[in-house]
């Protein structure tokens, strides 16, 4: 198995839990629901931003910085006139993405991988009049093609040489990133209750 195949298999349950919880909040039934989902995306991509910008990671993964979807998430919020979550919200207080080490690669795997599921979400966003030019920009595929852009990242990640301890950190990073998103979902449920 390649590294990506291993991390995909190891995080299958993590992903399923997030998928189920996001769908349960019916984000594409109304723009009000979608705004809740978008705020989570903001918090996630905001946490990811320094990882995409990290010089050492850009050396390892050329072109990494151009992959960040944070600006698109901000544009989506502006389209819908939704305020950015403040950096003092509880979720922001738990913005705990690692700032060094190979755990960051696991977080990047989760964020990049989420652009695959985004193809389905973008289609569903059409139900509430949103598309890749308004409100759902961050769900659009890359100009090179969604699949191709992903496969390029997969190849880059698979080629990295990691020792056993680094590999374990990478794997843990992927679990932690899903756990972070899970935390955002739980917080959203608390606020909505
Ligand atoms: C309702 C919400 C979601 C749905 C329906 C969904 C659906 C999917 C689907 C269908 C794929 C496979 C696409 C393909 O192989 O072509 C996928 C991949 C993936 N998604 Fe999601 N997703 C959702 C949310 C998320 C979120 C919020 C994250 C991250 C926090 C995420 C992370 C990933 C990752 C990492 C992969 C790549 C797995 C791999 O091939 O290695 N997904 N998603």
Automatic annotation (TrEMBL):
GO terms for biological process: heme oxidation. CDD domains: HemeO-bac. One of its GO terms (molecular function) is heme oxygenase (decyclizing) activity. It comes from the Bacteria. Pfam families: Heme_oxygenase. Transmembrane segments: none annotated. This is Heme oxygenase. InterPro entries: Haem_Oase-like (IPR016053), Haem_Oase-like_multi-hlx (IPR016084).
């Amino acid at each position: 198995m390649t590294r990506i195949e291993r991390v995909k298999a190891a995080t299958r349950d993590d992903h399923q839990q997030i998928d189920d919880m996001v769908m349960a909040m019916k984000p594409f039934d109304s723009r009000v629901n979608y705004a809740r989902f978008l705020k989570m995306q903001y918090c996630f991509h905001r946490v990811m931003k320094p990882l995409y910008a990290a010089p050492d990671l850009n050396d390892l993964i050329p072109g990494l910085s151009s992959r960040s979807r944070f600006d698109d998430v901000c544009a989506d919020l502006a389209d819908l006139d939704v305020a950015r979550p403040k950096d003092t919200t509880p979720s922001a207080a738990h913005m705990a993405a690692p700032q060094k080490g190979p755990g960051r690669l696991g977080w990047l795997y989760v964020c990049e991988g989420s652009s695959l599921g985004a193809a389905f979400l973008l289609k569903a966003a059409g139900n509430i009049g949103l598309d890749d030019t308004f409100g759902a920009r961050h769900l659009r595929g890359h100009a090179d093609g969604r699949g191709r852009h992903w496969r390029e990242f997969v190849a880059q990640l698979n080629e990295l040489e990691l020792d056993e301890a680094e590999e374990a950190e990478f794997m843990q990073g992927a679990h932690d990133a899903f756990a972070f998103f899970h935390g955002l979902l739980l917080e959203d449920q608390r606020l909505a209750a």
